[in-house]
Write a structure and sequence with these properties.
Keywords: Membrane, Transmembrane, Transmembrane helix
Radius of gyration: 32 Å
Largest sheet: 5 strands, antiparallel
Structural class: alpha+beta
InterPro entries: Conjug_transposon_TraK (IPR022276)
Order of helices and strands: HEEHHHHEEEEE
Protein name: Conjugal transfer protein TraK
Shape: rod-shaped
Helix content: 40-55%
Organism: Chryseobacterium vrystaatense
Number of strands: 7
C-alpha cells in the first residue's frame, strides 16, 4: 500500500513537473512573440517635426501603396509629355523630364511628333496643349497599364478636344531625384488620338 502511494505521488509530481515546464516554455515563446510584435510596431512609428513639434506618424506597407505610385507615375508622365506651351524651351524641359520616366518608346514617339512638325505647329499657332485624365487601368500580373483621357489643344480661334488612349508596361527600378516613384514605363504606345470636337471661340 505504501509503495502504491509512493508511485502515485511520483506520477503526480512527474505530471506537475512536465506541465510546469510546458507552461514555462509557452510563456517564454509568447513573450518573444509579443516582444517581436512590439518592436515591429515601433519600427513603423516615426516622428515628423512640424514647426519644431514632434508628430507621430505611421509607416504603411510599401506593397499597399505601390499601385497608387504606379498610377501617379503614369499620370505624371502623360501630364509632362502632353502639357505644352508655345515656347520651345518649355516644351524641351517638359519632354526631358518625362523621358526620365520611360524607356526608348517615349523618345521614339517624341521624335515621331517632332518630324511631323507637331511642336512647330504649337509654337507657330500660339497653342496651349493640356490633358485630362479620365482613368488608369492596371494589370498587376502582367504589369501592364492603359491610360484613358482627353487632350485639349487651345488655339486663338478654337479649342480642339481629342481622345487619348495609350498603353504600355511598368517596371520597378531604383528611386532617384528624376524618378522619385522608382517606376519606369516600357513599350508605350498611343492607341487612339482621334478628334472628338472642334469648338470655335466667340470673338468680340
Amino acid at each position: 500500500m505504501l509503495i502504491k502511494n509512493i508511485e502515485q505521488r511520483i506520477k503526480i509530481n512527474k505530471v506537475i513537473s512536465i506541465s510546469t515546464i510546458v507552461f514555462a516554455v509557452f510563456i517564454v515563446i509568447a513573450g518573444f512573440f509579443f516582444a517581436y510584435r512590439m518592436i515591429e510596431d515601433s519600427r513603423k512609428s516615426i516622428y515628423i517635426l512640424d514647426n519644431g513639434v514632434p508628430v507621430l506618424a505611421k509607416q504603411t506597407d510599401v506593397l499597399l501603396n505601390r499601385p497608387v505610385e504606379y498610377k501617379a507615375q503614369i499620370e505624371l508622365f502623360h501630364r509632362l509629355f502632353f502639357t505644352l506651351a508655345p515656347d520651345d524651351t518649355y516644351i524641351k524641359d517638359n519632354i526631358q523630364k518625362s523621358l526620365y520616366l520611360i524607356d526608348d518608346s517615349g523618345k521614339k514617339e517624341y521624335t515621331n511628333l517632332k518630324e511631323k512638325g507637331f511642336y512647330n505647329q504649337i509654337i507657330a499657332s500660339s497653342s496651349m496643349v493640356s490633358i485630362h485624365t479620365d482613368s488608369i487601368a492596371l494589370n498587376m500580373e502582367q504589369k501592364k497599364f492603359s491610360f484613358f483621357g482627353k487632350q485639349m489643344i487651345t488655339r486663338k480661334s478654337s479649342v480642339i478636344t481629342r481622345k487619348l488612349i495609350t498603353e504600355g508596361f511598368f517596371e520597378d527600378i531604383i528611386r532617384s531625384p528624376n524618378n522619385p516613384h522608382g517606376v519606369i514605363l516600357k513599350n508605350w504606345r498611343i492607341i487612339n488620338n482621334e478628334e472628338l470636337s472642334n469648338q470655335n471661340k466667340n470673338s468680340y
